[in-house]
Write a structure and sequence with these properties.
This protein has about 350 residues and is an alpha+beta fold. About 50% of the residues lie in helices and about 15% in strands. Strand 1 and strand 2 form a beta hairpin. The termini are far apart. About 5% of the residues have low confidence.
Length: about 350
């Protein structure tokens, strides 16, 4: 199959920069990915690799723009994370900041399963969730108050454009009764500058490999509030309860395992406010994945959406200080509504 124009463009960049010999015959096939980047499988004579190129306009219904410079910050996050935990993210084989793309190894699905897919299928293992929490907590702990990390990841404007505005602020506009709280959560989050944040810790961006989790898609990287990462990930373990009813007890157990392993890892920081801010953010992000600019694609049933609409506001107006309290209330609520 001939390469598409976009595939030809990517190959041309790699040949111009000398990463691929100009004489090599190379094919590029698009892969499914998120809304913010194009991802390509490049078949080289030496074997397959993946190329990720950031988009200036994201692939969602609403207008949503972000600078392609975030691709370079993703590369830097990968390097920083791998310095803390080797192989916590794929290696960067080649990077072109001007083109907004980088090359990473192709991780074979035979050895690396997408956590979203295993959760969808009801294969929700607490050991996987605990390892995600442990890795995330270690990355946050080891980068806390690190002046070089703080200097490298001054990405407040990007984080606002691709996280705070489309999730918290846009959702608040659609819910006037809690808009003031969504604005407040956005401002509190933006004011925290303490650790290296991934920004998109979602099961769709986590591979479970033979040696532990591998984090993908760090283009929201920011030196900011670690509570955002934890809340963003835990949120999916609430939403999954609407996706696969039969696995609800397992999702609930995974939520607790992830939260507890994370808390244990950051205990040396002696900062209980991280867990409290996570609990405050969680209902806002929960509502945002239904009514924000990037809703989850697997909850389209109106009755299921209304369960979130009915549940989240009470925890926004009367916040609790531990995410597990929200988890227990949510899964008890689902049982009541069965």
């Amino acid at each position: 199959m001939p390469n598409s124009p976009a595939g030809q463009e990517i190959i041309a960049v790699m040949k111009e920069r000398g990463w691929i010999p100009s004489s090599d015959t190379v094919t590029a096939a698009p892969l499914t990915g998120g809304v913010s980047s194009d991802i390509w499988l490049i078949d080289l004579p030496s074997g397959p690799v993946c190329v990720k190129r950031a988009l200036s306009k994201l692939k969602v219904k609403d207008d949503w723009f972000a600078p392609i410079s975030r691709n370079a910050f993703e590369v830097k996050w990968i390097q920083a994370a791998n310095a803390v935990i080797p192989n916590a993210a794929p290696d960067v084989l080649f990077h072109d900041a001007d083109a907004g793309l980088f090359v990473m190894p192709f991780l074979n699905p035979i050895d690396f399963s997408l956590w979203k897919s295993t959760l969808r299928d009801g294969d929700a293992r607490t050991e996987d969730a605990a390892s995600v929490g442990r890795y995330l907590g270690k990355i946050h702990t080891e980068t806390t108050n690190d002046p070089s990390i703080a200097k490298t990841f001054q990405t407040d404007e990007i984080f606002h454009a691709i996280r705070l505005e489309p999730y918290l602020l846009a959702t608040g506009v659609r819910h006037p009764n809690i808009n003031h709280r969504m604005i407040e959560l956005s401002e509190i989050t933006a004011a925290q500058h303490t650790a290296l944040v991934h920004g998109d810790v979602s099961p769709k961006n986590i591979l479970i490999g033979p040696d532990g989790p591998v984090f993908l898609d760090a283009e929201c990287a920011w030196y900011g509030d670690p509570a955002f990462d934890l809340a963003f990930c835990l949120n999916h373990l609430l939403l999954k309860g609407l996706w696969n009813r039969d696995a609800r007890d397992d999702y609930r157990a995974c939520f607790k395992a992830l939260c507890e392993s994370y808390a244990q890892e950051i205990s040396k920081l002696n900062d209980p406010t991280i867990i409290a801010r996570t609990a405050h953010l969680l209902p806002g992000l929960f509502l945002a994945r239904i009514d924000g600019k990037s809703p989850v694609e697997y909850i389209t049933d109106t009755a299921q959406q209304d369960l979130v609409h009915d549940f989240a506001p009470s925890f926004l107006t009367s916040p609790v200080n531990h995410p597990i309290d929200i988890c227990d209330a949510w899964y008890d609520n689902l049982k009541t509504n069965d």
